[in-house]
Design a protein that fits this description.
Layout (H helix, E strand, L loop, with lengths): L1 E7 L2 E8 L6 E5 L13 H4 L4 E5 L18 H15 L4 E6 L1 H12 L4 E7 L2 H4 L2 H15 L8 H9 L10 H11 L4 H13 L19 E3 L12
Parallel strand pairs: 3-4, 3-5, 5-6, 6-7
Antiparallel strand pairs: 1-2, 2-4
Helix pairs in contact: 2-3, 5-8, 6-7
């Protein structure tokens, strides 16, 4: 696996890459507030068969942020990833996203259906929750993660991430250090808060929901969802 910064339409984009550049591409998208490093245990394994690119989405990790003025971040994320796919020469590829990344993967399909010919939407409440549940989940994210941006510590980031997984012992230690560093980046607090406020504006986000458009998703799609996922709804 290598770390690269790719210029995607003027946006400096951090990517974790592995695999044969000629292989079928697998684009990995993290959840809101995460970084590409959530995939570090998967990248080299999947690279045996795929060209794997895990990306820090716009305004996350070490990728440049945009001033979204508190408006929905989804169209900016999709436009950025479309440009990244063009830059990397992806003709047809699979978009795999977890949580918020699952929503963006689905929206990327709607943006370029002739090229996104596989989808994996992993545990994505952002894509499948009704309005009330979505707002409740995002409000909880804002409450738990917001304070981290003011002075992230390793212990605080680890404790926050532990709330999202069934077995905290499986959390890679190196991922926690990278996330804490990303949260401490200048401007990250503002970019993160702008994005979450935009997502909480349900009416403004209406054009970027996919729950009511599932029948329009004419693409092979896998929907894994952990039975012990702390965020799952039953």
């Amino acid at each position: 696996m290598q770390v690269r910064f790719v210029d995607a339409g003027g946006i400096r984009t951090r990517c974790l890459m592995a695999g044969d550049p000629r292989a079928y591409p697998l684009l990995l998208l993290h959840g809101y507030g995460g970084t590409a490093d959530v995939w570090i245990r998967n990248i080299d394994v999947w690279a045996d068969e795929f060209r794997v690119v895990a990306v820090d989405m716009i305004g996350s990790g070490f990728t440049d942020a945009l001033d979204t003025a508190g408006k929905p971040p989804q169209p900016h994320a999709v436009r950025h990833l479309h440009t990244l796919a063009d830059t990397l020469g992806f003709e047809k590829f699979c978009a795999m996203g977890t949580s918020y990344g699952g929503l963006i993967a689905a929206l990327l399909y709607f943006d370029m259906p002739e090229r996104v010919n596989r989808l994996v939407l992993q545990g994505s409440g952002s894509a499948f929750n009704e309005d009330r549940d979505l707002v409740a989940t995002l409000s909880n994210v804002k409450k738990n993660f917001g304070p981290l941006m003011d002075g992230p510590t390793i212990d605080a980031v680890r404790a926050s991430v532990a709330k999202q997984v069934y077995d905290p012992s499986t959390i890679p230690a190196e991922m926690i250090h990278v996330m804490a560093t990303a949260y401490a980046m200048p401007g990250m607090r503002r970019a993160w808060e702008q994005g979450i406020d935009g997502l909480l504006d349900v009416e403004a986000c209406r054009p970027y929901r996919v729950l009511h458009r599932l029948e329009q998703m004419n693409v092979a799609t896998l929907l894994p969802w952990g039975r012990e996922d702390p965020g799952a709804l039953y």
